[in-house]
Amino acid sequence: MQGSKPTKTLVRTAAAAVAAAALVAGLVQTAGASEPPAAQEAAAKAPAAAAGVPTNITTISTGYSIPWGMYWLPDNSSALVTERNTFKVFKVTPNGQRTEVGSVPESQTTGGEGGLMGVAVDPNWASNHFVYFMHTSSEGNRIARMTYDGTRLTGYTALLKGIAKNRYHNGGRLAFGPDGYLYASTGDAQNTSLAQDRNSLNGKILRMTTAGAPAPGNPFGNHVFSLGHRNPQGIAFDPQGRLWEAELGENARDELNLVKAGSNYGWPICEGTCSTAGMTNPKATWTTAEASPSGIAIVDNAVYMASLRGERLWQIPINSGNENVGTPQAHYVGTYGRLRGVTKVPGTNALWLSTTNADGNGGEPAGSDKIFRVTIG
Q: What pLDDT shows up at residue 34?
């Protein structure tokens, strides 16, 4: 199971069918959530949904096996999509046409969550053609750079090694911040003590230059930007430049955090909200059956969080003027299976949303995963 210890795999998998059928008490599925076809037709005739609510979902691209990372080129001409276990990279145009452009060398799987994970495109791609990947290799997880000319990937340079790997808890998301630096989420590699070790690269949000060096101004003088994370698989910046992060919990609570430099988000001392001095509490939490989050994206003033075990897309309102969040609302509960990636379509109020069912966790055959386009009202 993604995000769980091996001993909990069967427990989470067995519970998935029940958890997908309905929300846990106290949280309400909104009118924008997916319904059977007849209900969808009726909803289409209903008054317009409130702002921020998904109003339409269509299949945009098919034929994938565990698509993990999605990242748009700065010119918005296409996005790059990674496959975790095949190590392949695809160019996908706005209308969903996909073309394989290469693969990432020296990649390995872990029999669980490791492999080819996050991708990020350099903000200066038009001049340097650099793209970045986080992937598992023989010695551990690493962040590497390749060249993409719009047609194919070439070259390979490992920028940062030494991120411990394990079957589970590898993190893996990459994103460029508004400051021009590269951010990466890393898991604790099933060694909980690493998350609180400021000298470890694991259980952290990292911040680095495009050459792989610690970014200037990092709080501890190394690559570490924040610590105390268990298995963060989602990071995204809001219009105010704030960094939000989604994190898989263990048995109790999954988290949405507002990440600040030098802050400690508690793991393994805390899971979810706690009163321990020096720990920063999450802005929202869920049971692991409701979420087990992976990717997140932000459109206007809402975080959209893809859920694996929870098999739903969470919409979490955020406030541009303060750090409060509104009541989370769930969409597409149990409709499309395990949801992995979500990214904003540039220049629109739409998202791309990917499934991750084509493996032992989703029970679907190779090539059955999809990317959907979700219109936001």
A: 37
The structural domain count of the chain equals 1
Is residue 16 pLDDT above 80, yes or no?
no
Cβ neighbors of 364 (< 8 A, separation 6 or more) are 337, 357, 358
Q: Which of 124, 131, 167, 162 lies closest to 146 in space, CA to CA?
A: 131
SS (H, E, C) 119-184: EEECCCHHHHCEEEEEEECCCCEEEEEEEECCCCEEEEEEEEEEECCCCCCCCCCEEECCCCCEEE
> Per the domain annotation, does 77 fall within a domain?
no
Per the structure, the complete domain to which residue 38 belongs is given by 1-64+289-377
Q: How far apart are CA 168 and CA 208, in angstroms?
A: 24
Q: Which of 155, 120, 160 is nearest to 140 (CA)?
A: 160
Q: Is residue 243 part of a domain?
A: no
Q: Each residue of 323-367: pLDDT tens digit?
A: 999 999 999 999 999 999 999 999 999 999 999 999 868 899 999
pTM over 0.85: yes
| Structure tokens given for 200 | 């470890």
- For 274, residues 6+ apart whose C-beta sits below 8 A from its C-beta are 266, 281
> 313 in a domain, yes or no?
yes
CA distance 188 to 186: 7
186: in domain: no
